[in-house]
Write a structure and sequence with these properties.
The protein has 330 residues and is an alpha/beta fold. It has 2 domains: 129 residues, no CATH class; 183 residues, Endonuclease, Chain A (2-Layer Sandwich), CATH 3.30.870.30. It has 9 helices and 13 strands.
């Protein structure tokens, strides 16, 4: 599950904002408040910093009866040197910090690849992290509503990240124009929210009608990254067994994106290549989504570990394959 650092002053502010129960309070206000409360209570391992001893029924409720989640109360918070978090920080940590200086806030966000919220914006940021009130399933086809019509729609959903994995049997199938219309645009959209150099791992099948050359693909990828001035550590894995039909996904620190079809949705002219499918967004602050994502990442890790043991591993693996989302690599 995600790891959360929460300043006690933000916790106090949050409980003071509890809306009146329905019908005196609105359904949306209550739903929003309870979504954050349930996350703090049972959706994350929680560390409350700058804690002050007090009698508070909300604090009592928060610290008791937790369902498999941990809580730690700390009186102090040691501000990281130059706002840069230690390298060993869990990449699926989220921070709700009481930092009033907007320049300092920006430093935290610019110098790290993780999720930060502060007292002046935590309510909005929680909505972003949880995809609150956003449509989580979009049709990838011509439609008037809930349509995923181009890769630019990703901007409405993406969150800070340090590590990215794209997992798709067919992502390298076809010519360079198909790569430019899909894979490269996906990477470019993600790069827009990357504050520092990130780890990029692409996992695909080595081939159906013909065998892919991992070095040629890697060179094409590096050429694109260089031309677009995208700062990342790229790696490619070509599996010897086709990925299961429903395992097409994109993984990042706080978000999983699933597809009912290959992510090769569009032609080079922007029209649809797919005959129709759906794209689904899963916020990992929902513990069930986190667990299923963790299980999927374990499978990817096993694939990579098995390929790395082969004498001809260089046919299947190239570049940086030490993605931090794969915490299970031996």
């Amino acid at each position: 599950m995600l790891q959360t650092v929460l300043d006690f002053s933000i916790f106090e502010d949050f409980v003071n904002l509890q809306p009146k129960q329905i019908p005196l309070g609105s359904e949306e206000e209550n739903y929003y408040w309870l979504s954050f409360w349930n996350y703090l209570k049972n959706g994350t391992d929680l560390s409350i910093i700058n804690f002050k001893e007090t009698q508070n029924i909300f604090l009592t409720s928060l610290t008791t009866g937790r369902k498999g989640t941990k809580i730690k109360l700390s009186e102090n918070f040691k501000k990281p040197y130059k706002n840069i978090l230690p390298r060993e920080t869990n990449i699926q940590s989220v921070f709700f910090i009481d930092e009033e200086d907007e320049n300092e806030q920006q430093k935290y966000r610019n110098k790290n690849s993780l999720f930060f919220a502060f007292k002046n914006d935590y309510k909005i940021k929680w909505k972003e992290l949880s995809l609150f009130k956003k449509s989580k399933i979009l049709s990838v086809e011509k439609a008037e509503k809930l349509q995923f019509h181009s890769w630019s729609v990703l901007n409405e959903y993406l969150l800070p990240f340090s590590d990215l994995i794209i997992f798709d049997n067919f992502i390298f199938s076809g010519n360079k124009k198909k790569l430019q219309a899909n894979l490269f645009k996906i990477i470019k959209e993600f790069s827009k929210v990357a504050s520092v150099k990130f780890n990029l791992l692409i996992v695909s099948y080595i081939g159906y009608d013909f065998i892919l050359n991992v070095e040629k693909i890697y060179d094409t990828l590096k050429e694109f990254l260089r031309e677009e001035k995208i700062e990342c550590n790229p790696g490619i894995v070509l599996t010897t067994n086709a990925i299961k039909r429903h395992d097409r996904a994109i993984y990042s620190n706080y978000l999983r994106i699933n597809s009912g079809d290959s992510f090769n949705y569009f032609k080079s002219d922007g029209t649809f290549a797919t005959k129709g499918t759906e794209i689904t967004f899963f916020p990992l602050c929902e513990n069930e989504k986190y667990i299923t994502t963790e299980n999927s990442l374990k499978k990817i890790s096993e694939i990579i570990d098995n390929l790395a043991k082969r004498e001809d591993a260089d046919k299947y693996l190239i570049g940086n394959i030490k993605n931090k989302l794969l915490k299970f690599n031996t």
